[in-house]
Design a protein that fits this description.
This protein has one domain (about 5-100, about 110-350). Residues about 1-55 have low confidence and may be disordered. The longest helix has 21 residues, at about 155-175. It is α+β, with helices and mostly antiparallel strands. The protein contains 16 helices and ten strands. Strand 3 (about 180-185) and strand 4 form a beta hairpin. The chain has helices at about 5-15, 20-25, 45, 65-70, 75-80, 130-140, 155-175, 205-215, 245-250, 255-260, 265-280, 305-310, 360-370, 375-380, 385-405, 425-430, and strands spanning about 115, 145-150, 180-185, 190-195, 200, 220-225, 230-240, 285-295, 325-335, 340-350. Bound molecules: 2-acetamido-2-deoxy-beta-D-glucopyranose. The site of 2-acetamido-2-deoxy-beta-D-glucopyranose has 3 residues, from loops. Keywords: Membrane, Transmembrane, Transmembrane helix.
Length: about 425
Amino acid sequence: MLEYTSIYVLSASFLVGLPFAVLLYAYINSRRSPKPNRDGTLRILKEKSPNLPPAYPLKAYTLAQITSIGPFPCYATLTGVPLPEPYHAFDIKTAKPRPYRPFRWAYHQTMSLTRLEPNWWLELEDTYSTRLLQRSQILQKYKTKIIDRHLNISNPWRVEVACQELMEMVIQFLCSRYPQYFHFDTSKFVFLNRILGREFEVYKMDPLDFVFQNVPEDFAIVMPDDGRGGKYVFVAGMICSSVGWDLGEKIGKALGEIHGVVPEYKEKMERSMDRYFSKLTTDKPIQRGSWDIVVGEPLFVCGGEKFNKRRSGQDHNIKEEDLTLRVDWQTLRRLPLSGGIVFNYKALFTPVKEFEDEPGVPALVEKVLREGNKKILEYKGTWHVEHVVLPMLERMKRRQVEMGVWEEGKEVRTLEESPFYRGWEEKWRNQQEF
Ligand SMILES: *[C@@H]1O[C@H](CO)[C@@H](O)[C@H](O)[C@H]1NC(C)=O
C-alpha cells in the first residue's frame, strides 16, 4: 500500500525523503521576492499587501492580523509563489493531463521531491465534468467519509481560516490560469465557472464545498495543534480517490496515528515529519508522483479488506488492454494565513499500452518491477498484474530496440526528462490538439 494516495503514505515517503529535502533546502533555495500580480482583475487586492505584517514566509498570522487583512488578499504576495501564467490555448474539450511517468531507477535514490511548478498546481483536463459528477455521486453516498473538518484542536478558528484561504487560492489560480473559463467579480465576490455554466457566491457557501464543486482533485489540510504538543493533525479536506481507506477514518488524527499502519516507523517518523513540516515555508511548495499498475480505473474503493483480497491473487482473465497506469500526482504547500499545510492529489489513469511509443519507459518499468525493492513492490501489490504486464513490457522494449528509439543493453535508469520521457510534449500536444 506504500505508494497509494493516503497521507500516511505520502508522509512515509517524506520521511524517506528527508535527507533529500535537506539538500533541497540548501540548494534550490533561490531567494525569490514575491512577484507582482499581473492579472488586472486582482490588482485592487494587491494594494492591501504593503500593510501585511511580516509573517512571510513561515509563521501563521494572528486572528487580529487575519481579520485586518480581510477577504481575498493576493496569495502570490502572501506566499511568494507567483500566480500561474494564463493558458490561452487550453481547451477543456480536448485537454489531457501531462503524461507523468514518475518511475525511478535506482529505486531508492531519491524521493523525487521537486519544487512545485506554479503553473501546474491544479491541472484541468477533458474529464473535468464527468469527474466532478462522479465525485459528487461518491460524496452523496459516503458523505463525511469524503469531506469533513475536525475542530477539536486548541485553535479551531484556524481550521476555518485554512478552508477559506484554500478556496481563495483556488479561485486566484483558476482565474489566472484559465481566464477563458473562470472569472471572479471582486466587488460582488461571485465566481463564474463557464465550463459548468454556474455562478457561485463564494462567501455564502462552505469553502470546502466550493472547492469540491469546482476542482476534481483531492485536498487534505494538516496543522499543528498546541493542545497535542504542536503535532500536525489532519483537520480538514476532501478525498475521493483513496483506495482501501477513507478520509472519515483519518480525520482528527495526528500524523503518527495516520500512518500507524507502518508501526515500526511510528515514533521516529512522527517527529521527523512534524519537524519537516514545521520548516516548510510558503514559498517552497513541493510536487511528486507515486504510481501503480492497476486493472481498470478504480478511483475510490471503500473498505481495504475486500480490495486487498482481490489483489492477493493473479487473475488469469486480465487482458493487456485492462491494465492502467495510475499516477497520483501530489503537491504540498504551506497556507500563509492559517499556517496549515495543504496536500493536493490527483489520480490520473493511462492505458499501459501507451508506453509503446514512449522511449525507455517499458525498459524502466520492467526493471523496477523485476528488481525493485521487494517490500515496496509488495506494498504496491504490483504482483497481481505482473503475469500480464511483464511480457507486455518486454515486447514493447524489444520493439523500441527494433525501431531504434531504445538501445539494446543500454543502462536503465531514471529518464533524463523525468517525470516525463523523451518527446513527451509533442505526443501530448498531438493528442490534445493544442
Ligand atoms: C478533544 O481532544 C482532546 C485531546 O486530544 C481529547 O482528550 C478529547 O476527548 C476530545 N474531545 C472530543 C469531544 O472528542
